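tmp note - Aldo/keto reductase
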Amino acid sequence: MIKNLQDIVTLHNGVKMPGFGLGVWQVQDGDEVVNSVKYALKAGYKAIDTAAVYKNEEGVGQAIKEAGVPREDLFITTKCWNADQGYESALAAFETSLEKLGLDYVDLYLIHWPVAGKYKDTWRAFEKLYKDGKVRAIGVSNFHQHHLENLLVDAEITPMVNQIELHPLLSQEPLREYCQSKNIKVEAWSPLGNGKLLDNPVLKEIGEKYNKTVAQVILRWDVQNDIITIPKSTKEHRIIENANIFDFELSPEDIQTINSLNKNERTGADPDNFNF
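out:
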């Protein structure tokens, strides 16, 4: 369990990844994303999670440049979009992302969704990028257990991370257990359920007990479950507040109560049924 904002988890290849970071999904390129990333870096965040399809890699790159934090202290994730999947096209897409970010390497590169008939070829491209030293770690996003099992039949390298929709209404326990058995770290996207959980009365009550917000309770639940988490915000006070979760600990009873909120309810698409 991570103990502070800079604390790390060790991926199965020995690479150290911060257990807490900033996500920039739905953050506009230009000033909005530049400011969000700079606020986060100023607050002590080290991990930033973007993707080609977010169309804000350039802004992320600009913020990294302007913030002046040494590159080796940062952990930058981006993702290969569905339209770019396949061997040659994934290699080309990576170069485009690298150029937009203005970086020499990426810390973690993820397959964004399991596009049927394509993700195995994409993974071969990822293995090449990894062997060539262009990425420090490779992984997947939105993969169910059966996608991972299928990938592992031919994969030379096991994914280091599976980034999935994960929050108290979609706790993904069976998938988390499977990933743990394969030494794949689980990372939560939309950890706050796209904002839908912020009025939850059960979580509010738990928050009052610790004098914490609902968001802080959920993010603390992630940390105590060894889930890497990347809450998104564009507001400086919220970015600081989200990370202010290392001065309290949820009791086992509270963890159990939060676990019991699970309804297998998604805010995003089901990885078995998406059309983009």
